[in-house]
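Why show two proteins at once? Because comparison is the fastest way to build intuition. When a single record is shown, students tend to memorize it. When two are placed side by side, the eye starts asking what differs. So, the first record is below.
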Amino acid sequence: MGVLSSAFRIFLQILTALILVRILMSWFRPRYRTSGNSWFYRLEEIVYRATEPMLAPIRNILPGGGMGMDFSPMILLLILQLVGSWIVQALVQAGL
């Protein structure tokens, strides 16, 4: 396995972890911002900035069903798994 394929695989793992953290943070968000939980909101902002550019286009394509659930993170995880595995496989076959 080449350096480029290993680096891309690590990138995909980090991106997957950020999306999962974003999902979990949305479930456990504190109701009020206080000095004791300000770290949560700072971390949430970092995760939001890293993932929103990929989630927004998916959210724009999805129909607004009004169910209150955002399925874009799950769809992005599926896309990352499919496309990512194809790219890693191509890089490994190319010896990169």
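Second record. Ask yourself what differs from the first in the token line.
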Amino acid sequence: MALKIYHNPRCSKSRKTLELIREAGVEHEIVLYLEDTPSAAEILDVAGKLGVAVSDLLRKGESEFREAQALPDLGDDDALAGWLEAHPIVIERPIVVDTDGGSAVVGRPPENVNRLLP
């Protein structure tokens, strides 16, 4: 089993989720998504693994979302994934992907990651 966590170290939920993964001793890759922004294709892939629309990955409370001038239609997954690639601060966090099993969870609450842990 290998996990990939889209992580923001400034976020307490993200830090706690990472802690749970480490405590479980599971191999993992940390993606600092604000620095190593996922592509639109990756965002679409993650949404598919979560079983949600791309709009469900939005942090609607972020000022960058609330003040967006050129926000695409929230029902257009392709356009919205492209917009998120350009505005990664708006991506929900943390997201943990089981890279072997093809499933994913949002670590809110952090204990959601237990669904992926052995």
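One difference worth noting in the second protein: The longest strand covers residues 2-7.
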